[in-house]
Specification:
- With 282 residues, the chain is an alpha+beta fold.
- It folds into two domains: 192 residues, no CATH class; 50 residues.
- Helix content is 43%, strand content 13%.
- A seven-stranded antiparallel β-sheet has the order 6-5-4-1-3-2-7, sandwiched between helices.
- A hairpin with a 3-residue loop joins strand 4 and strand 5.
């Protein structure tokens, strides 16, 4: 159910069509700021509702390597969701299509795609899975989502994304108007930089400088959540194949996703050793 990668044509690039992307995280900015640097891309981070935050990439592999924006965003969302106890919704658009990918834990990401003119190009069942994973109303919200899968000659792909966000307002999403999806990516980045509640998050390459603050490991959840060592093993198990697959496909987004999980597994292993009880004296 993951959206297939898209590619811009040379004509689209000459015309100045700029792919854009947003990452909505169901967590406060303080929590998101701990893991966002591992994506290795500079971002702007801002609140997007009482329990949500939004990440606006400054650059992205799609600007340098012409890698499809949806492929990169799916890798990023997957890595963030596996490494943190909250879901991540990636919104993306380019000259040909627009869509979303929802990643939650180790479950397979779910997504939907619309062609540029708004023609649905996904599976309706994906909308049901999307609603269930976010705890949306199984009647009213699902009906609203299903309307986004029906033909509408007056709604293009980017209008569909805004319709999706309208449904998510009932789940607490309140995206600042300046950061609405679908616009020119350069203007979106400028708006994020000028937005008073936003802060800039440097990528891991800059955070690795001497004296830089490193992300803290995820701590065990109260009431029986996974401990650092168990989480590290799960992250390692997921990170290795993601990295290998990314290298084979020459996909920067998936390589970053795998590297993020491997880095987090190393941090959690070290954290688990620090917290391990000292052996009893013989």
């Amino acid at each position: 159910m993951r959206p297939m990668p898209t590619e811009q044509s040379p004509a689209d690039r000459r015309a100045g069509a700029t792919p854009g992307a947003l990452l909505l995280c169901r967590a406060g900015p303080a929590s998101v700021a701990q893991v966002a640097p591992l994506l290795r891309d500079d971002m702007f981070l801002a609140p997007a509702g009482e329990e949500w935050s939004v990440l606006v990439p400054e650059g992205g592999p799609w600007r340098v390597d012409d890698e499809p924006v949806d492929s990169v965003l799916t890798g990023w969302a997957t890595a963030l969701a596996v490494g943190a106890p909250w879901p991540v919704l990636a919104l993306w658009w380019d000259a040909d299509r627009a869509g979303y990918t929802l990643a939650s834990g180790f479950r397979r990401p779910v997504g939907y795609v619309w062609l540029a003119g708004g023609t649905p190009a996904g599976e309706k069942e994906a909308m049901h899975t999307f609603a269930a994973r976010l705890g949306l109303d199984p009647v009213l919200d699902v009906q609203a989502l299903e309307r986004l899968t029906e033909p509408d000659p007056e709604a293009d792909a980017r209008t569909r994304l805004r319709g999706l966000l309208a449904v998510l307002t009932r789940a607490g999403v309140l995206l600042p108007p300046e950061l609405a999806p679908g616009g020119d990516a350069d203007r979106l980045r400028e708006a994020a930089g000028a937005y008073g509640a936003a802060r800039r998050i440097a990528g891991a390459a800059r955070r690795d400088a001497p004296g830089a603050t490193r992300p803290r490991p995820r701590t065990p959840r109260p009431g029986g959540g996974p401990g650092p060592r168990a989480l590290a093993l799960a992250q390692l198990t997921a990170g290795v194949p993601l990295t290998v697959w990314g290298v084979r496909q020459r996909s920067t987004g998936w390589i970053v996703a795998g590297a993020l999980l491997l880095a987090q597994s190393a941090v959690n292993l070290a954290y688990g050793r620090e917290r391990a009880p000292a052996p009893a004296p013989g």
